[in-house]
Specification:
The chain is of the alpha+beta class. The chain has a domain of 69 residues. The protein is built from 3 helices and 3 strands. Strands 1-2-3 form a 3-stranded antiparallel beta sheet, with helices on one face. Helix 2 crosses helix 3.
């Protein structure tokens, strides 16, 4: 099993510009998640992540297998968690491309 690499190790060994966790964290602070609970065709929660409420980063849906078990609060939690992970992954990708194309 390999040991986890720390931010300090990355800083010490980096010889070129790179995307950092701090940069992604700063961007994630600007992400807004909007949720909507829908009843058709089955009960579900839709969560959408936006950067600065202008740039779409991801969409997630949460629903139960059996509609009788649907719980809105749990659905909001799952959908929000999923869409924030999508947003973080997208930000790493976009910031990597921005750095690459500079």
């Amino acid at each position: 099993m390999s040991k986890a690499v720390t931010e300090e190790e990355l800083q010490e060994k980096s010889v070129a510009p790179r995307v950092t966790k701090d940069r992604i964290g700063d961007l994630l602070d600007r992400v807004q998640v909007h949720t909507t609970t829908c009843q058709t065709p089955v009960p579900h929660v839709l969560a959408v992540a936006w950067l600065d409420d202008k740039f779409h980063l991801g969409t997630a849906i949460s629903k139960s297998v059996n509609p009788e078990n649907f719980d809105e609060e749990i659905g909001i939690g799952y959908a929000t968690s999923d869409v924030l992970q999508q947003a973080e992954n997208k930000l790493w990708e976009l910031e990597g491309f921005r750095l690459y194309s500079a």
